[in-house]
Write a structure and sequence with these properties.
Length: about 120
């Protein structure tokens, strides 16, 4: 949820970046999506994907996913639109953002931030 909203064209490799771009474009054009536990359409082309998790740390990814659901009040299995997602994310506080994204390498690299989340979720 958070990553899709702040994605700026950088990724693990070209296949991942192209898939992420296409997935976000689908959602932005009105395509509905379902929140799932585990691998999703965004993970499909991730070079770190393993059959049972993520080579970069399955528990770390799972923790961030659980935290994202917690701070947005959403749940696994829920269908939603890009507009609905952006509205939920617009209500996230800076402390909640840090709870979800505080230990993420992309934030540490400067590719996302609370300020960018606020910018991307403005009505």
């Amino acid at each position: 949820m958070f990553c899709a909203t702040m994605f700026s064209g950088s990724g693990y490799d070209q296949a991942f970046t192209e898939n992420m771009t296409q997935t976000i474009e689908y959602m932005q054009k009105g395509g509905r999506f379902r929140l799932v536990k585990g691998h999703d359409d965004i993970c499909r082309y991730c070079p770190n994907r393993e059959s049972d998790g993520c080579s970069l740390g399955t528990e770390n990814v799972s923790r961030r996913d659980r935290a994202a659901l917690e701070v947005t009040g959403l749940s696994t299995g829920q269908d939603m639109s890009w507009t609905e997602l952006r509205e939920r994310l617009s209500r996230v506080s800076e402390a909640e953002f840090q709870h979800v994204c505080g230990d993420c390498r992309w934030q540490e690299m400067g590719l996302c931030s609370y300020a960018l989340l606020k910018e991307r979720t403005m009505p």
